[in-house]
Design brief:
Blueprint lengths: L18 H8 L6 H9 L8 H11 L4 H5 L3 H4 L7 H23 L7 H12 L6 E7 L5 E9 L9 H10 L4 E7 L9 H16 L3 E9 L2 E4 L7
Helix pairs in contact: 2-3, 6-7
Length: 232
């Protein structure tokens, strides 16, 4: 894009450079993240175009759209040129993207691998700024019965109560379960406490004939599987 476009309103650009027209004429895949966000913004400010404003926001999150989705309306309004209406548009669009991913994941009803479980749970937990503990309940054919949040805590940990976990499993007639929690820090390696609680819950499950198939630790776009690492 020519540098002279920086301070010129988008509507004054050549049609091939305007994000909306590019999307209509050339398709959505050709647009950059900044151009897509610029469409949501609608306009920039006196000193910069909507695309330049979008680039500034993306630079703030180091190009990571997951981090962008964590910003609140108030945090987005801290950028010069962003008011409540523009901030709400960005938050709403990113939330729709998260929900779309969740809907797609739920269509896969049978769990055959850790990747399947990750796809189901990632949209629930990966973007949280605090730890949550979730439970995936399965029948004898490894089909999903239900998923539920067991607890939430702070940045450093949350409580996984075996009694509460197996009460959910028994109430739903689950034959097996998959444990999951997130690490907001992004470090997906299990702590000593993670290892201990996994062992404790697995042993408890054997006593009541409910198999604990896996324990996933999720950190944004990656995960750790106890089963894949032969730690169950």
């Amino acid at each position: 894009m020519n540098s002279y476009l920086k301070h010129i309103p988008i509507k004054s650009w050549e049609e091939n450079d305007q994000p909306r027209e590019k999307l209509i004429n050339q398709g959505k895949n050709i647009l950059s993240d900044a151009e897509l966000i610029a469409i949501l913004l609608g306009s920039g400010s006196r000193n910069e175009s909507a695309v330049q404003l979008a680039k500034r926001i993306i630079a703030h999150v180091k190009g990571n759209l997951v981090e962008l989705s964590k910003l609140s309306v108030k945090e987005l309004c801290a950028f010069k040129g962003i008011g409540p209406a523009k901030a709400v548009s960005i938050v709403a669009a990113l939330e729709l993207g998260r929900r779309r991913r969740a809907s797609e994941a739920l269509q896969k009803e049978k769990i055959s691998s850790s990747v399947d479980a990750y796809e189901i749970l990632q949209s629930c937990i990966a973007e949280k700024n605090y730890e949550e503990f979730w439970l995936l309940l399965l029948d004898r054919a490894n089909q999903i019965i239900n998923k539920t949040k067991i607890s939430e805590g702070g940045m450093a940990g949350t409580v996984a109560d075996p009694k509460k976990i197996f009460k959910y499993a028994i109430d739903k007639n689950a034959s097996s379960i998959i444990l999951c929690h997130n690490h907001p820090s992004g470090n997906i390696r299990p702590s000593s406490n993670d290892i201990q609680i996994t062992k404790k819950i697995t042993e408890a499950g054997k006593l009541i004939d409910i198999n604990v198939l896996d324990h996933l630790i999720i950190g944004e776009e990656k995960y750790f599987s106890f089963a894949d690492e032969n730690m169950m």
